[in-house]
Design brief:
CATH class of one domain: Alpha Beta
Number of helices: 26
Strand order of the largest sheet: 6-5-4-7-8-9
Mean pLDDT: 88
CATH topology of one domain: Rossmann fold
Shape: globular
Low-confidence stretches: 250-262, 545-570
Number of strands: 9
Helix content: 40-55%
Structural class: alpha/beta
CATH superfamily of one domain: Glycogen Phosphorylase B
CATH architecture of one domain: 3-Layer(aba) Sandwich
């Protein structure tokens, strides 16, 4: 090449910069390679090479170049900032914290405070992170990335550490400032929409998410959140269409993957990449074979399993991939499906409402569609012994790894006012947290059978013997509802989309009654209302909910049989 004879490293570097500005990355990299062959320690060339590699996502390779660029005096700040950014991209939070702290020692700047705050947020040290972002903003008030990450730290502190609504309002103010400064920032509008949804300001949430999508139509996170807000508002037609975008880019979006792919029932995300057959979108299924895939947590699988019988009636062959924990309950007689079998279509359970054109006023199975194994019910009837009063099943906490656990779960001690009622209380949880064990031991009126519960099939049998189930938003809410049991569900202020907004009932379950927080994080008023409602039921000898027998269609699903969920009660 014409520059091969050039022996001046600085000239090669300048030419590489010009090539980069002209959009000729190939030429720029070649010039940098020649420069570094002549002088391996040339810091500007090492920096630019590291920058190119980082832009390509090759962060480990970039670090090797940037480390050389950072070495020496005076401090080469662009290289130090790029090095911090590469560490953050690799989620090496502690290394990024140490390096950015050292950068601040030698050359304080808003950018260095920003990197330090981002590393602290990655370590979930949110209070310290906010302090670092505040220092960055004191130097540079319009540092939009510090504003964004400060707001994000507030949101994540609410989601992971403290359910105080104050953090949501701080996040709201922060993201509002971001979009004022950068109205073209898609992620700013996206996160503003997230927070507005959690505050039940659904119209504003939808507007913000629409703006985000207009700026970045391929943003799967914004589209998924838009679907949640639309469905929560009751706009099902558009909501289920947008819900399909949860698959778009999900494998490459790390946060989305963590939040939605790593759930126990998520066979869809793991199996879909292998499927050669098309996704079913409602085409005729006569004579066709279809593979249905579970998705989400256990509660999601139970909730959307109601749509399976409709598919069974349409197709020649239906197989369902289920999590092991739900197999005995939902499809005890089904052989494991052949993942590489010859199917005409595949479909996630969560996509069935769209494919079947489900309507909010005509959801199948609202009165119940699952039934416990009679043999297991007899076993638990004998184990519980003679009734000592109305039986009330309790669930106050779910999985600790759930992304919204801190908001949806409570302490057992919070239920003490409820336990004063004249009833026989039965814990339906398989596991009790260490922090609740002392309280459990002090409550002889609450029986615990966790070690004897052999999965959901046993839990369903125990649930069948309850007159009422009172639960937080866990899979137990869906199991009780799917069995047609009266179920009272205690919800956080920022309830999930499936429970919609400001309703005391649910279109999904006829037996459900919803008790919502009025203020985020405050469970005591909720428990008091539940206790009062329970006392009124017992005092007037009323059933916990009024549910006509004609609405209940118990059914223990078996995929290989032609099940008619719309038939008369069994």
């Amino acid at each position: 090449m014409e520059y091969a004879a050039t022996q001046d490293v600085d000239t090669l570097f300048v030419d590489a910069v010009h090539a980069r500005e002209e959009g000729d990355a190939h030429k720029a990299l070649a010039l940098l390679g020649h420069a570094l062959a002549l002088d391996p320690g040339h810091r500007p060339s090492r920096y630019l090479m590291g920058h190119f590699l980082a832009a390509k996502g090759e962060h480990e390779a970039a670090l090797a170049h940037l480390l050389v660029a950072c070495d020496g005096t005076p401090p080469f700040l662009p290289a130090r900032h790029e090095f911090s950014q590469a560490l953050l991209a690799l989620e090496r939070w502690k290394d990024a914290l140490d390096f950015s702290t050292e950068t601040l020692r030698v050359a304080p700047s808003a950018q260095a405070h920003y990197y330090r705050g981002t590393a602290l947020a990655g370590l979930e040290r949110f209070e310290e992170a906010v302090e670092s972002f505040d220092r960055a903003l004191a130097i540079e008030p319009a540092h939009v990335h510090s504003l964004f990450n400060r707001a994000d730290a507030m949101y994540r502190r609410w989601k992971l550490q403290s359910p105080s609504e104050a953090y949501l309002h701080a996040a709201l103010a922060g993201f509002s400032s971001v979009v004022e400064l950068r109205p073209d920032m898609a992620k700013g509008h996206q996160n503003l929409g997230f927070v507005l949804e959690k505050l039940n300001r659904l119209d504003e949430s939808i507007a913000s998410l629409d703006r985000s999508i207009a700026l970045d139509p391929h943003n799967s996170m914004a589209r998924y959140s838009l679907a949640c807000s639309l469905i929560a508002k009751g706009e099902w037609t558009r909501g289920w269409v947008e819900m399909e975008h949860r698959f778009t880019g999900a494998q490459s979006d790390n946060h989305f993957a963590r939040q939605h792919i790593a759930q126990p029932g998520n066979m869809a995300y793991h199996v879909l990449p292998r499927r050669q057959n098309p996704a079913w979108q409602g085409e005729p299924l006569a004579g066709k074979r279809i593979l249905l895939l579970s998705e989400g947590g256990f509660g999601d699988v139970i909730q959307f399993y109601r749509f399976v019988p409709a598919v069974v009636r349409m197709a020649a062959k239906v197989d369902v991939i289920l999590p092991r924990e739900l197999q005995a309950l939902l499809a005890p007689d089904q052989e494991p499906p052949d993942l590489d079998g010859d199917y005409d279509f595949h479909c996630s359970l969560v996509s069935l409402p769209l494919a079947l054109k489900a309507r909010i006023d005509a959801i199948p199975g609202v009165g119940g569609y699952l039934k416990a194994d009679p043999a297991r019910v007899d076993h638990w009837r004998k184990r519980l012994g003679e009734r000592r009063g109305p039986r009330v099943g309790l669930v106050w906490s779910g999985s600790t790894v759930h992304t919204n656990d801190i908001n949806r779960s409570m302490r057992l001690a919070d239920l003490r006012p409820l336990l004063q009622a004249d009833a026989e209380f039965v814990c339906l949880q398989k596991f009790v947290r260490d922090t609740d064990r002392k309280t459990l031991a002090s409550l002889p009126g609450l029986s615990f059978h966790g070690e004897q519960l052999d999965g959901f099939a046993d839990t369903a049998a125990l649930c069948e013997l309850m007159d009422l189930v009172i639960t937080v938003d866990t899979s137990m809410a869906h199991l009780a509802g799917a069995m047609g049991k009266p179920v009272w569900i205690m919800l956080p202020r920022a309830a999930e989309w499936r429970w919609m907004a400001d309703r005391a009932d649910s279109p999904w379950y006829a037996g459900a009654r919803l008790f919502r927080q009025h203020r985020q994080g405050e469970w005591q008023p909720v428990v008091q209302r539940v206790a009062q409602a329970l006392e009124q039921c017992f005092a007037s000898d009323l059933a916990p909910v009024v549910m006509p027998d004609s609405t209940r269609h118990p059914h223990r699903a078996s995929i290989d049989l032609r099940v008619d969920c719309g038939s008369s009660p069994q």
